[in-house]
Write a structure and sequence with these properties.
Distance between the termini: 35 Å
Structural class: alpha/beta
Number of helices: 12
Shape: globular
Largest sheet: 9 strands, mixed
Helix content: 40-55%
Strand content: 15-25%
Mean pLDDT: 77
Number of strands: 13
Length: 352
């Protein structure tokens, strides 16, 4: 394909690309050859040996999105080398539901699956959620609206903003709070919950950020959030209703150890200036390939965002979209948290 008199070939998927900043220039080429579909929302479900949960969750998720999604949607089941009947069940759903498709990976790793699907999807908004659907699905419309019409780059569900909405055991609660406190101590971040499996990102932000995320397992979304906030991307922090799945396959202590190693690695990368140099290089390359005017250098962009904190106007002036006014409010220069919980107590339900 020719762009600005340059011939650009599609790179392989992110799964086969080198991790870290080495991915950046090749993924930018891919971004310009695959324009996003503005009316499409992606929902990725990473699974490993989840044949029982999958049979319950996909029909429920498909029914909810069909009723409440005002945009076209795709549900992508990302199978991480399952050894049970997960892949067959996923394929049977895709045969009977045109909105459902399946991606199979030969290697395990939630982060690897999410990066693979997000890099291949042409949706303008990319999201993922855990297959057990522990997060109340009524939080999904405001999560997506914050990106479509709210001006945010990343949106996350949080179990820690309103603890009364979360039902889980003491051990998980203790580990989660200590882990998120450790992130704040290491990086002085504002987002509240790094580990909730309920996140979304714009395609434009993902094209810049995914090549910087090295982890392919559970630490992937923590790394994505830290890098996003520190590089000036706007994060929407949404309190959600969440019920712990007692049959979860997550190995808590093994995952916690991997997360600690990941935090140390990301800290070293920031100390070495690895992310800043990679992002500035990517912006310069993007401006050279695209016909659009050159973007503001990242260092200047961060200064501007810090000097002009994000605020919302009134619905009457049209300076903020209704969804954000209903569900969100400012939380500093580049993040926001919702002041009320999505969902209705009178039997009605939101749509997006």
């Amino acid at each position: 394909m020719s762009v600005n008199n340059r011939t650009i070939s599609l790179p392989p998927t992110v799964c086969s690309l080198p991790t870290g900043p080495a991915q950046h220039s090749r993924l930018l080429d891919w971004q310009h050859t695959q324009p996003p579909l503005l009316n499409l929302v992606n929902v990725t479900i990473p699974v490993f040996n989840e044949e029982t949960r999958l049979q319950r969750s996909i029909p429920r998720l498909h029914a909810f999105l069909s009723e409440h999604c005002r945009f076209k949607f795709e549900i992508v089941i990302a199978d991480n080398a399952s050894t049970d009947g997960t892949l067959e069940i996923a394929r049977s759903f895709s045969e009977t539901h045109p909105e459902v498709r399946v991606v199979h990976l030969d290697q395990k790793g939630r982060g690897r699956a999410v990066k693979r699907v997000w890099s291949e999807s042409r949706a303008a908004v990319l999201s993922y959620m855990d297959v057990d659907l522990s997060t109340d699905l009524y939080a999904f419309p405001p999560l997506i609206e914050s990106l479509i019409s709210g001006g945010f780059d990343v949106a996350i569900g949080s179990r820690l903003l309103k603890p009364s909405l979360t039902t889980r055991g003491f051990k998980r609660e203790f580990i989660s709070r200590d882990y998120n406190l450790l992130i704040k101590l290491f990086f002085h971040t504002r987002f509240s919950d790094a580990q909730c499996g309920f996140k979304a990102i714009t395609k434009a932000a993902a094209a810049q950020l995914l090549p910087l995320v090295e982890d392919n397992e559970w630490f992937m979304d923590t790394e994505l959030l830290i890098v996003s906030e520190k590089l000036g991307y706007r994060i929407f922090d949404l309190p959600v209703r969440w019920v712990d799945d007692s049959d979860s396959h997550v190995k808590i202590w093994r995952t916690a150890l991997g997360d600690l190693r990941g935090l140390a690695r990301v800290k070293r990368n920031f100390t070495r200036g690895q992310y800043m140099s990679a992002m500035n290089e990517g912006m310069n390359r993007s401006a050279a390939v695209s016909a659009d005017p050159p973007q503001t250098p990242l260092s200047d962009k961060r200064v501007q965002m810090k000097s002009k904190p994000l605020t919302f106007g009134s619905a009457a002036t049209g300076s903020a979209p209704p969804a954000v006014l209903l569900y969100g409010g400012p939380r500093g220069p580049n993040s926001a948290s919702e002041q009320s919980v999505p969902g209705s107590t009178d039997g009605s339900s939101p749509s997006f």
